[in-house]
């Protein structure tokens, strides 16, 4: 072997060893041997691609879950029972009136209007004995008794009429007149006020209550109000009632009148003023 070849062979072996070492180092750095790969460049990693659907066909919708049963509503508390005030008892039905009774009643009323008081009293008493439930018979007996000056009997008969027919304003108004004649002013006021409650347009009750407040109870303000209401309902008598009003406004109430119990209304002090007269 030439000397040059002897020196070239070891050199070639050394170069081969170095080349093999470089290949191993390149493999380790590439991460192919299982190590994570880290880029040494300054570039940011590429953005991940958008996800692709797993299948190009529309997915079969999953069956909707069965609706859960709605919870049963809580039972509402039972309403408290409503206790209503008892209604007033209705008036008893009017009894049947035959033609004979009607004719006898009409005749008794004609006697009363004519001033034939004893005859009217007998006729009405006979009717009351035959049909005691007829309130009108007792009411007219009350008028007969009062016109005869028998005020206690008058009040008793009219109370019976009110008991049988409590919704008749006229009976209460007539009872008020008899109570006033007896000097029972509080009873008279209650009777008149009941009549007005039942019938606010009952002119007789309005005027009579005005006279009671004017001459007996010493309440002029209340009397003025009642006179005014009564005058509006009685245009034919408005002139007389207005004179009472003018006299009342110019006169001070006399407190002594409230304590007295005259059978008839006293005449007003002013001259030329018509005397107060209750309306039957």
Protein described:
By secondary structure, this protein is mostly helical. Among the domains are: 72 residues, Serine Threonine Protein Phosphatase 5, Tetratricopeptide repeat; 97 residues, Serine Threonine Protein Phosphatase 5, Tetratricopeptide repeat. The protein contains eleven helices and no strands. α6 packs parallel to α8. The chain starts with a helix and ends in a 21-residue tail after the last helix.
Tell me the helix content.
55-70%
Note the beta-strand portion.
under 5%
Number of strands: 0
What is the H-and-E element order? HHHHHHHHHHH
Average of per-residue pLDDT values = 75
Structural class, please? mainly alpha
- Alpha carbon gap, first and last residue: 177 Å
- Per CATH, the class of the domain at 184-280 reads Mainly Alpha
Please tell me how large the radius of gyration is.
59 Å
Low-confidence stretches: 6-11, 16-63, 79-88, 257-264
Briefly, what is this?
The protein is mainly α. The protein has helices spanning 3-29, 99-113, 117-130, 135-147, 151-164, 169-181, 185-198, 203-216, 220-233, 238-249, 255-259.
Search tags:
single chain; 280 residues; mainly alpha; Serine Threonine Protein Phosphatase 5, Tetratricopeptide repeat; 11 helices; 55% helix; elongated
Which helices and strands, and how do they pair?
Blueprint: H1 3-29, H2 99-113, H3 117-130, H4 135-147, H5 151-164, H6 169-181, H7 185-198, H8 203-216, H9 220-233, H10 238-249, H11 255-259
